[in-house]
């Protein structure tokens, strides 16, 4: 499980990169990655897993999320259902910062950009209003897209109907600085999530003591190592629950040794029981 650094190039004659994607889920790339560009993701309809920073949750009936510069995240096709249709807009941080610094009218957007370090999910009417604008942007020129993107940012910045995804802002420099060490940890969990994972073993893997490892992981990711392992296992469980497996089988195949505890952790992270998730409730 690597943390990929993604190189983003704006569209020709544009400050933005505008992506419209409508393809089968098996063709979707959802690796955990980051990039300096701010990113707005609008899933037109359907459901899947939202993984932004250390926050993992399910979305249904579409999604609208603003992700800050260098905040790690997965593609929103993770655990999604066909058909999956989304619009993604990415913009370089220097462009965004120049807008904010040069125009006093951008104060609302400046506040929005500051919040985006946590990852922001928008709900209700604002989600529908922005989605309608983004769909129309598919047919616009680069100039029209830029003007409408500013309008979208203003609408979101003015809205009170949002949810902060990560309690603490993601410190992008920390993630970048420790990327190699984090990749070792993440890859180990990816390979052994179905077995018992000892913190001592992982601490030894990255050549630090157990207390130092616990402090380091919490400082870098804002969650404990145990929380990370549980979230990764539940992410896998979401995938397995869409297969022909019993809940007990999924529980044990994901590294849990107690069905009651598995149900408790699943409900805490996904906000629904494994049975409800399987039934699409």
Automatic annotation (TrEMBL):
Keyword flag NADP: no
GO MF annotations, alphabetized: DNA-binding transcription factor activity; sequence-specific DNA binding
Record-annotated membrane-spanning stretches: none
Alphabetical list of InterPro entries matching this protein: AraC-bd (IPR003313), Homeodomain-like_sf (IPR009057), HTH-like (IPR037923), HTH_AraC (IPR018060), HTH_AraC-typ_CS (IPR018062), RmlC-like_jellyroll (IPR014710), Tscrpt_reg_AraC-type_HTH (IPR020449)
Pfam families named among the record's database cross-references: AraC_binding, HTH_18
Keyword Transcription set for record: yes
Keywords carried by this UniProt record: DNA-binding, Transcription, Transcription regulation
Domain HTH araC/xylS-type: 183-280
Name recorded for this polypeptide: Transcriptional regulator
